[in-house]
Amino acid sequence: MTSTAKAHTNIAFIKYWGKKNQQLNLPTTSSLSLTLDKFYTKTTVTIDDTLSTDVLYLNNQKVDATRVHQFLDVLRDELGYFPTLKINSYNHVPTSAGLASSASAFAALTGAVVQELGLHLDTCTLSRLARRGSGSASRSFFGHFAVWHAGIDNDSSFAESLHAPAMPIALVVAEVSSQQKKVGSTEGMQRALTSPDYGNWVNNSQQQFIDMQSAVMAADIEKIGTIAEANAMSMHDLNLTATQHPFTYFTAETQRILQIVDDLKHQGLLAFATMDAGPNVKIITHVEHAQLIIQTLNNALPNLKLEIAQSGPDISYE
Asked: Where is the Diphosphomevalonate decarboxylase-like N-terminal domain (predicted)?
């Protein structure tokens, strides 16, 4: 038997940046995200007890499966023992470049494993399990908008759908680099925790989380963008003000894109920047403004890779 799951990436409009429990991947703040249609991971698992350990093929290439094996052992502790697995995963998103490839990857893996075991678990339980592999994976089970509750322990930290109304929201994805980032997300979070501003960021994020839910339920794209941009930029400020090994994901091209977005905003367009752990910029806008934003960015940066993403679906199975 084989089982296949397809999960889409999500981009957090209220960020997850910092853990209060490393082992359980419990975040310091709750977060809110939009699932994207353009970027996804499709994963097939096969039980193969002839293998001495779990094996991972990524885009048809055998790769180091240490992190995946450790996660599968967590699932074995949670779900009961199951034999070694052969995993074939296809990533339709740049890996480790701040475009949430780990979110879709661990969501798809969790879904495929649970299906292969013949278990029937609700999506909130699946999200809690996937959180142990990648925090943001908890949100990739849900289409459109999702919230991840920070919780206080393993059972209370999970994601669920926000059940928001449909809206003409789009993300212009400006891919500055598809290269693996120099500072991984886990290390970046640990450094950010040393910023003297971290406590204020947590407090502000809690209020922004509440305000963002109201904006999403009202389908107010301008308010969504305004809150998301403020949350993201203040998150990246933490990296610069860390007392232990300060750093930035910004490049010169990143900064040029942010300036163009700011100029477009002053011209009256809906254009708001958000960024995750990497140099790539996502621009929140109305679908009717997306092509003009792409045209403007292309004129200024002809070699920039640009795509328009819209609201994506729930996890699916084959």
From this structure: 7-159
Query: CATH number of the domain that 176 lies in?
Result: 3.30.70.890
Confidence of residue 182 (pLDDT cuts 50, 70, 90): confident
Q: Is 16 among the domain residues?
A: yes
Write the DSSP string, 53-98: S-EEEETTEEE--HHHHHHHHHHHHHH-----EEEEEEEES-TTSS
Residue 305 has pLDDT above 60, yes or no: yes
Over residues 123-137, mean pLDDT: 97
96: pLDDT strictly greater than 60: no
Q: Is the pLDDT of residue 99 over 80?
A: no
Q: How would you classify the pairing of strands 2-14 and 31-47?
A: antiparallel
For the chain, how many structural domains are there in total?
2
- Find the domain containing 231 and state its range: 172-309
Q: Buried (b) or exposed (e) across 139-175, using 16+ Cβ within 10 A?
A: bbbbbbbbbbbbbeebeebbbbbbebeebebbbbbbb
Asked, for residue 318, whether it belongs to a domain, the answer is no
Rounded to 10 deg, the angle between the 185-192 and 221-241 helix axes is 80
Q: What is the pTM of this model?
A: 0.95
Do 292 and 269 form a contact (C-beta atoms < 8 A)?
Answer: yes
Residues 6+ apart with CB under 8 A from 255: none
102 and 206 share one domain? no
- Distance between CA atoms of residues 103 and 11, nearest Å: 9
Domain boundary, last residue among 136, 165, 194:
165
Position 247 scores a pLDDT of 97
Q: Nearest-CA neighbor of 248 among 98, 101, 93?
A: 98
